[in-house]
Design a protein that fits this description.
288 residues, globular
Length: 288
């Protein structure tokens, strides 16, 4: 139950982080924003490291695993999502991102030998379908849609899923979620800053408002990462991944209630109900 609560808290943070990121995107492009948000969390991790990391249980192999995960998540996932939004728009990107727990569970079954009961797989499918309903906006698909462009959101979902399984592997060797977050974010910061500096074309000027929003986003997402890794320390990937993947539900609820960006309709209600029921079923299966 503790792992489920941590996963829910992580999903809440990821969902709220999407809202603050949208606010930041009013002033800054996504790639420049990533080069601010991820390093911001990294600085906080470095400051808190002496109090949060127990080096007596240190594992060099786990350190390498966390570093490898950090190269892909959040760094590569952020860049793939950025590219997907450019090619396909946010509707298809968000809908396909909901399939990440399926890839995470497959990777955990193959690499970590986790047992995947049919009920757990159905729960993950329910979350993916519910998130797709929540994210989908009829008429928002771009007319220039090309099938090959699906590579970007699918690759993002695969990388996100593999990263969760990889993080679990590292946490089995060194069960310190804060260390996993710090090492991963150090690598991710280097990657996103490098990508921002090496890109061609003009860069948008960094505004004070954009800087503030992306710093806030980084701190929220960094907290979400620690919560997710804490849950993975206590529970298998099949328990954590579907709950984390439900973060768009939080984004939609907060956006609808407080930002009033989109009126509530039957599609959103259906997606929310399916997502919540799938998570409740997952929780019931783990308790029993």
């Amino acid at each position: 139950m503790t792992a489920l609560l941590l996963s829910i808290a992580g999903a809440l943070c990821f969902g709220i982080g999407m809202i603050t990121a949208r606010c930041g995107l009013r002033y800054q492009d996504a790639r420049s924003g990533a080069a601010v948000s991820i390093p911001s969390a990294t600085v906080l991790f470095i400051v808190a490291a002496p109090l949060m990391i127990d080096w007596s249980a240190y594992s060099f192999i786990a350190l390498l695993v966390f570093a490898a995960v950090g190269l892909f998540y959040p760094a590569l996932v952020t860049l793939l999502t950025f590219r997907s939004n450019e090619e396909l728009g946010p509707t298809i990107t968000s809908a396909i991102s909901g399939t990440a727990p399926l890839f995470a569970m497959l990777a955990a079954a193959l690499l970590l030998d986790e047992h995947m009961p049919p009920q757990i797989v159905l729960c993950a499918l329910g979350v993916a379908f519910g998130v797709a309903l929540l994210s989908w906006q009829p008429g928002a698909v771009r007319r220039s849609f090309a099938g090959r462009a699906l590579f970007w959101p699918v690759a993002g979902a695969i990388v996100r899923g593999l990263a969760q399984a990889g993080a679990k592997a590292g946490l089995l060797l060194w069960g310190n979620p804060f260390a996993a977050s710090l090492i991963g974010y150090l690598v991710s910061s280097t990657a996103v800053i490098g990508a921002d500096r090496l890109r061609h074309g003009p860069r948008s000027k960094l505004s004070r408002s954009g800087l503030q929003w992306f710093v806030i986003t980084g701190l929220i997402n960094g907290s979400a990462m620690v919560l997710m890794y804490s849950a993975l320390t206590l529970a298998p990937v099949s328990t954590v991944a579907p709950v984390i993947a439900a973060y768009p539900l939080v984004t939609v609820i907060v956006s609808t209630l407080f930002l009033r960006n989109e009126p509530i309709n039957a599609r959103m209600v259906s997606g929310a109900v399916i997502t919540v029921c799938a998570i409740a079923w997952l929780a019931a299966s783990r308790i029993n």
